[in-house]
Write a structure and sequence with these properties.
Radius of gyration: 19 Å
Largest sheet: 5 strands, mixed
Oligomer: single chain
Structural class: alpha+beta
Shape: globular
Helix content: 25-40%
Number of domains: 1
């Protein structure tokens, strides 16, 4: 009986002898280390997100955010800057916090949006606890940033919360 590449957990067994190869500066090939594979995956996801039509591919954005923030042991608040056609201009991690909180300064979020000439933003942060439910503080922050950014004609399209493999959209819940 034949199996596809991901039909069983055994296809992910590191001891199976199969590994990805990388070429070093001398031109010889060697097995890739774990961090090299993860960095390459992040670059690939970022290239699929940057310059692409975000609205037609929310799954690509969620995949990128899941890989980028899902396993962090501390909170990070980031912003995806979008142009007028909602194509990604940049992804910037603005603030780093502790296990349970991070401080976010609206002035800095507005400055970064203006510096990139963004027309719209996706707000993003992670919950290392693994629980994607937005807190009252998350809801208040979303409204504060939405108001501050509206003053300079930048729209907040969504606030995404990454908790391990889960990415929750506050816009899909009507909270943005």
């Amino acid at each position: 009986m034949s199996h596809d590449l991901v039909s069983s957990l055994s296809s992910f067994d590191a001891s199976s002898g199969e590994s990805l190869l990388v070429r070093d500066v001398a031109g010889t090939y060697r097995p890739a280390e774990d961090d090299e594979v993860l960095q390459a995956a992040q670059r690939l996801l970022a290239s699929r997100v940057r310059g692409g039509d975000v609205l037609s591919s929310p799954a690509a954005v969620k995949d990128f955010l899941r890989v980028r923030l899902g396993a962090l042991p501390h909170e990070v608040f980031a912003v995806v800057h979008l142009d007028a056609q909602h194509r990604v201009l940049d992804y910037v991690e603005l603030f780093r916090g502790t296990v349970t909180q991070t401080s976010v300064y609206p002035r800095e979020v507005v400055k970064e949006a203006l510096a990139r000439n963004a027309a719209a933003l996706l707000l993003v942060h992670c919950h290392p606890s693994g629980l994607a439910e937005p807190s009252r503080a998350d809801e208040f922050l979303t409204q504060t940033l939405k108001s501050a950014l509206a003053l300079v004609d930048v729209r907040v399209l969504d606030h995404l919360i990454v908790a391990g493999p889960t990415v929750l959209s506050m816009a899909e819940r009507g909270q943005v």
